[in-house]
Amino acid sequence: FTAIDTDEQAEKDDFTPGVEPQPTWCPGCGDFAVLKALKGAMPEVGRTPEETLLVTGIGCSGKLSSYFESYGYHAIHGRSLPVARAAKLTNPGLEVIAAGGDGDGYGIGGNHFMHTARENHDMTYIVFNNEIFGLTKGQTSPTSPKGHKSKTQPSGSAKDPVRPLTLSLASGASYIARTAATNPRQAQEIVKEAIEHDGFAHIDFLTQCPTWNKDAKEYVPYTDIQQDDEFDFDVTDRREAADMMYEAENRLYEGEVLTGRFYRDEDRLTYGEEKRKTGEMPADPLAERYFDEDAEWA
Ligand code: SF4
């Protein structure tokens, strides 16, 4: 993936593929909102399709890379983050975005999620969280509430769900937010912020699945924690952010949806910056490989 640095200003429509495939998502699916937010945010960030790589995992969410104009890579299940990391380290000029579902990201790829956050790789990771596996017809996922009934857990899940925000903070992500498909204005703002953030930016994007999670909440009404005086906390303070996440994750399973920015650390170096600081990695690895005739290619 070769980032082409252009002076051109992209418009929202530039991120729609020339041969536009019609999304096969079900009517009312929250995934449409992620695509809309991403297309809306990119021109505001000032990036073009030629400067952007979107890596997706497996699931309904994985189709995102087919409906978004940029470099794209549809990775195997749970493995979007290793691909995204390699691309960003090799070509620091690329704007790298990874995306996938809660099953893909918090289950099958959970280990990659934890370590990509820990190492603070400079990328945006959007997790479509609909609390089930959608593409494979509604099985229980890592974020399904305890007691949730599905074909794989007909008597109800006996497991407590993963807490994505808390997990992300404990792992080391330097930007953590939650938004919802039902709140498109906030969603676009958060996607923009996450892309502009230098470091690992994780968005837990609540996306309703009306087909297989009929009993689940539609994620309305929601509360924007930055707009409500009840939730006055410092997003740059790890301890206050942890308390706020704990509160939000408890309330979600009681039917109350809290969205917004939960944590931001602007000071921490990214993994690539750490590597370049020690001299272990060249400033522009791609350029050196291109122009070093003696370089060994794998
Ligand atoms: Fe969306 Fe669910 Fe349909 Fe998949 S199955 S496209 S997640 S509504």
From TrEMBL:
GO biological process, one term: sulfur compound biosynthetic process
Biological source species: Halovenus carboxidivorans
UniProt lineage: Archaea, Methanobacteriati, Methanobacteriota, Stenosarchaea group, Halobacteria
Molecular function GO terms recorded: oxidoreductase activity, acting on the aldehyde or oxo group of donors, iron-sulfur protein as acceptor; thiamine pyrophosphate binding
Region annotated Disordered, chain positions: 1-19, 137-163
Keywords of the record: Oxidoreductase
Signal sequence bounds: none
Domain Thiamine pyrophosphate enzyme TPP-binding: from-to ranges: 58-205
Membrane keyword on record: no
Highest taxon of the lineage: Archaea
PANTHER family (UniProt xref): 2-OXOGLUTARATE OXIDOREDUCTASE SUBUNIT KORB, 2-OXOGLUTARATE OXIDOREDUCTASE SUBUNIT KORB-RELATED
Protein name (database record): 2-ketoglutarate ferredoxin oxidoreductase subunit beta
Cofactor: [4Fe-4S] cluster
